[in-house]
Amino acid sequence: MVPAALIKLSAALLWLGADQSKNSVDQIPAALIKEPGESVQINCNHSNTNFYMIQWYKQPPGKTDMTLLGYARYSTQTVEDQFQNLYNVTGSGQSLSSLVIPKLRQSEDSAVYFCAASDAQYCMKPQAPTKTLTDTRGAIIHLLMAARDTGKPQRRD
């Protein structure tokens, strides 16, 4: 018999200047144990009408860092490139989003999963090109070049 893969789930809410007393975030289920090869759906919802984004993070056992798996921003869902074939994000950032693991892998999927809710932000400033140079002593220099102002804001998601 194949040992069960333990999938731990936990909830976290990212508050950005909001009154926490009027808001809540719920992640269901809180914890579960599944066999490798099975699928899992984790749901996250929030009650803040000013939040339009739900992010999904994974924290491997014994680690303190978290990795962004994907997010729902308004009604658009995005999974980070390196996780495209492993996880799915469904729903809306406005209220309810789900992280779906279609097929559990043995140890890779055993982790604490976090959802976080926030307002959706974007940058209106054009991205400045960069160039890396090496000086005569062999030290690396990072040069930030100012982009020409075209007068047209560029939106970055």
**Rough shape?**
globular
What's the N-to-C terminus distance?
A: 45 Å
Largest sheet entry: 6 strands, mixed
Q: Care to count the β-strands?
A: 12
CATH topology: Immunoglobulin-like
- Rg is 20 Å
Helix/strand/pairing category:
mainly beta
How many domains make up the coordinates?
A: 1
Assess the beta-strand content as a share of residues.
35-45%
Query: Which residue ranges are poorly predicted, with pLDDT under 50 across at least 5 consecutive positions?
Result: 1-5, 9-19, 131-136, 140-157
Q: Provide the CATH superfamily.
A: Immunoglobulins
Within the largest sheet, what's the order of strands?
3-1-10-5-6-7
Q: How many H/I helical runs?
A: 0
Q: pLDDT average, as an integer?
A: 75
CATH class: Mainly Beta
Helical residue percent band: under 10%
Order of helices and strands: EEEEEEEEEEEE
Q: Per CATH, which architecture?
A: Sandwich
Protein name: Ig-like domain-containing protein
InterPro entries: Ig-like_dom (IPR007110), Ig-like_dom_sf (IPR036179), Ig-like_fold (IPR013783), Ig_sub (IPR003599), Ig_V-set (IPR013106), TCR_beta_variable (IPR050413)
Keywords: Immunity, Signal
Domain Ig-like: 23-134
